[in-house]
Amino acid sequence: MATLWGGRFTKEMDDTVKLYQDSFPYDKRLFEEDVEGSLAHCKMLVRQGILSEGDGKAITDGLNSIRDDVHAGKLEVAGDYEDIHTFVEEVLTERIGDAGKRLHTGRSRNDQIALDMRLFTRKKILEMRGQILTLLSILLQKMKENEDTIMPGFTHLQKAQPITLAHHMGSYFEMFRRDVTRLDDLYERMNYCPLGSGAFAGTTYPLDREYTAELLGFKAATNNSQDSVSDRDYIIEFLSDMSLIMMHLSRFAEETVIWNTNEYRFIEIDDAYSTGSSIMPQKKNPDIAELLRGKTGRVYGSLMGMLTVMKGLPLAYDKDIQEDKEGYFDAVDTTMLSIELAGQMLDTARFNEKRMADSASGGFTNATDAADYLVTKGIPFRDAHGIIGRIVLYCIEKNKSMNELSLEEYKTFSPAFEQDIYQAIDLTTCVERRLTKGAPGKAAMDQEITDSEEFLAGEKARTFQGIPGGEIS
């Protein structure tokens, strides 16, 4: 196995130790970032007179040829290498000779991997926020389509008050809206370049770290070289953001599972996002929604694992930090696939509007409105609350809804009831009278949709400092 550090050692590493400490099997996915960072480092070295123009051209051409061959399938990122840095440098040196050995001047694998991880994270933040914006677009469309779709709202999984499906979808819009803004904040906070920090104490070479940062699209170079190579806050923060995203997806999935049951029948999941049973031919199972719930715990585990890795590390770099990758990469892949599938599942789902409306009618969701009606007749709310509670108990005993009671029955509980009680407890009236900001009434919902449209348009138009990989030459 090729290494970059063998000069001081007199014997080969134990084979089991090699297997235990090599990171190449999983950090090889950082190939693009490693080449991108190396191209920028080389260009800066030439500009500073640390590398000759000839060596710089040889290195640049060599790195580009390696990348081109990988893209074309002529070269596989594989082999007996300690890490991705070793792979790139060894292949480069094989192709261009000793000039390849000069690429590492003024840098360490510590600041090199810190850079690779930041470039990877920056890219994935933008990809993930794009996915969430697509999911938000789907939610917004459901809101627009269902302003008049009455359904029961729940607390404690008990029917509580009537709302609309638009209002319910708006709740998820707000959750994922916060997720987007968290990713925005993280991008700005972590967009600083650690390259040039060396192992941890900088270097004696006259590097221009700000130029390297500029080449790579960062806001600036990091301020402290020791922190630069040992900081993984941005990974923990991204894992935390992903955990929140997965938690929101899991809540949506839980309701999808419940609403999909025969008892609720609020929603029908498209066949493409369901599975059957090997023994029960009638079954149509919401497996994708269930997996969304299950995979949430997996992402949580990656967050807790990374927090545990970092909690006791002294400055500066420690090999423990190599454990920042496997769980992190898995969490990124899991979260991005989950967002995509959740959006597709929602987009293709069919809602049973009649079933929702019937369910709202049969669960005393208009009881609060009946109490409010009595308040308008001059009865104190606490007394009104008690009166309606007794009416609900009466309805349960008689197997009736409040709409089915006669006016004479109402008057046995209070002489304040008049014919207009039926209009007051009509579900459409109950919803439409809720006009405070954020409520399900039509006027309030129209404003919420407008605000959501403006947010989505603003986020889609937002730009971030940074350049795509492959533009450095």
What does this structure look like?
Helix 3 crosses helix 8. This protein is mainly alpha-helical and 473 residues long. The radius of gyration is 30 Å and the shape is elongated.
Count every beta strand, where a strand is a DSSP E run of 2 or more residues: 6
Provide a count of the helices: 19
SS-derived structural category:
mainly alpha
- Relative strand content: under 5%
Distance between the terminal alpha carbons, to the nearest Å?
30 Å
Q: Going across the major beta sheet, what is the strand order?
A: 1-2
Principal-axes shape call: elongated
Describe the sheet with the most strands: 2 strands, antiparallel
Query: Regions with pLDDT < 50 over 5+ consecutive residues?
Result: none
Mean pLDDT: 93
SSE ordering: HHHHHHEEHEHEHHEHHEHHHHHHH
Radius of gyration: 30 Å
Helix content: 55-70%
Break the fold down into its secondary structure elements and pairings.
Layout: H1 15-21, H2 24-27, H3 31-47, H4 53-72, H5 84-96, H6 109-145, E1 150-155, E2 158-164, H7 165-190, E3 192-193, H8 209-215, E4 220-221, H9 225-230, H10 233-259, E5 267-268, H11 287-310, H12 326-348, E6 350-351, H13 353-361, H14 367-376, H15 381-398, H16 407-411, H17 421-424, H18 427-432, H19 442-461
Parallel strand pairs: 3-4
Antiparallel strand pairs: 1-2, 5-6
What labels describe this entry?
4% strand, 473 residues, two-stranded parallel ribbon, two-stranded antiparallel sheet, mainly alpha, 6 strands
